[in-house]
Automatic annotation (TrEMBL):
Keyword list, A-Z: Coiled coil, DNA-binding
DNA-binding among keywords: yes
SUPFAM superfamilies (alphabetical): Winged helix' DNA-binding domain
Residue intervals passing through the bilayer: none
Residue ranges the record marks as coiled coil: 81-112
Presence of keyword Lyase: no
Protein's UniProt name: DNA-binding protein
Domain of life: Archaea
Gene Ontology molecular function: any one: DNA binding
Length: 113
């Protein structure tokens, strides 16, 4: 047995803004410079990736598409969004370490006869 969890970032009204998928999308946009390439690499539809990035841009800001044609567009990811990703990943890591501790206790309990 083990503990599992999911975390996400909400706005002040309780609306989800960014979760694990959003963080992965942002990281892939950083790597590729493009929402389209990021979506392709993550096997998600371009429409979903575009709408997700627009939601982030609309609530937090920091994901700005550059206009252009083929091979000239792209997306600029602000320092604020990069810091958000870092904070999210640090929180996820800390929570996982705590849950690992308690999962170990579950294992110990499960081994008691």
């Amino acid at each position: 047995m083990k503990f599992k969890f999911k975390i996400w970032i909400e706005d002040e009204n309780g609306n989800a803004i960014v979760g694990k998928g959003g963080v992965e999308l942002i990281k892939e946009i950083l790597k590729t410079g493009s929402i389209a390439k990021a979506a392709d690499n993550l096997n998600m539809s371009y429409k979903f990736a575009w709408e997700y990035s627009r939601k982030i841009e609309g609530t937090i800001g920091g994901l700005e598409p550059k206009k252009g044609g083929k091979n000239t567009g792209g997306t600029i990811v602000s320092d604020k969004i990069q810091q958000l990703v870092e904070i999210y990943e640090n929180a996820e890591k800390e929570i996982q370490e705590i849950l690992d501790k308690y999962s170990k206790k579950l294992d110990e309990l499960n081994n008691v006869k």
